[in-house]
Amino acid sequence: MEKHKAFTLIELLVVIAIIALLLSILLPSLQQARQQAWGVACLSNEKQWGYYFGIFLNDHDGKFTGLDYHKWTDILEPYTKDSPGINFCPAAARTLNEGGRGAGAAWEEEGRKGSYGTNYWIRDKKYMVLPTYYPQDGWWTSFNVKEADQVPVLMDCAYSSGLPLYQDPPPEYDGQTSSYTEMQCMRFFCLDRHRGAVHGLFMDFSVRKVGLKELWKLRWHQKWNADHAPPPQWPEWMKDF
User: Fold this and answer.
1) Which end of the chain offers a freer environment for a tag, N or C, measured as fewer CB atoms within 10 Å?
2) 150/15 Cα distance (integer angstroms)
3) Residue spans of alpha helices (H) in the chain
């Protein structure tokens, strides 16, 4: 009778162990490569947003007129309609209702969706009355400013916009965000989406990676004074960044 060759139990276990070992070696590299690809795509999206913001400013005498918080996506839609998908960073492509979680969740407000948010200080100040503890003359109404490469326009964000203050505390854990009533808007932007950093578009239309602790050093509004204020108390999850 013809004999059929087959793996013994020991040989099968050895093969399984080798496959498991190879996966343990390759998976971190694949995950890292995927994160790098997401980062490149995210920066590309924000570069596109810079192009559309530039056209908008050119059409509005160089002023950020009418860029209301979540409605800015509608205002820019005539420019962005031929660029589907740029509303979402690949690292945060789903809303909470769609299965997104924590720092990797996109926002959804009044039927609008996205994972980038604007610096709410870049708008016409006449559209909003702030509480007295906000700098009333902190608005950026024009892009023609000094140190424009330090003024955020658009960034990875848990909401469509935010009004950061230097006094805003860091989130106690990654993905902790506040409601607008609490007015701790820096938490909207302080998200670990890109390995201890977020990506941002700046007033000079440059895009770059921004470390989470660096967020407090940027010039979010005209009266930002990070050089003469005590540093925030960093929570445990941020200490090694």
Assistant:
1) N
2) 55
3) 9-59, 72-80, 186-189
Indicate the pTM of the whole model.
Answer: 0.84
Question: Measured between alpha carbons, how far is 159 from 200 in angstroms, rounded to an integer?
Answer: 14
Q: How many CB atoms lie within 10 A of CB 115?
A: 27
In the chain, domain spans: 9-238
Q: What angle do CA 37, 155, 113 make, to 5 degrees?
A: 85
Give 174: exposed, middle or buried? Use CB within 10 Å, 0-12, 13-18, 19+. Answer: middle
Is the alpha carbon torsion for 126, 128, 131, 133 positive or negative? Answer: negative
Structure tokens that stand for 191 in this block: 């998200």
Enter the tokens of residue 170.
């860091």
Q: What is the largest CA-CA distance in the chain?
A: 95
Q: Token match 């013809």: residue?
A: 2
- What is the reported pLDDT for 198? 97
Segment 67-75 long-range contacts (CB within 8 Å, at least 24 positions apart): 67/118, 67/122, 67/123, 67/124, 68/123, 68/127, 69/118, 69/120, 69/160, 69/161, 70/109, 70/110, 70/112, 70/159, 70/160, 70/161, 72/118, 72/160, 72/161, 73/112, 73/114, 73/160, 74/112
Rounded Cα gap, residues 222 and 32, in angstroms: 38
Residue at 148: amino acid letter: A
Whole-angstrom Cα distance, residue 39 to residue 46? 11
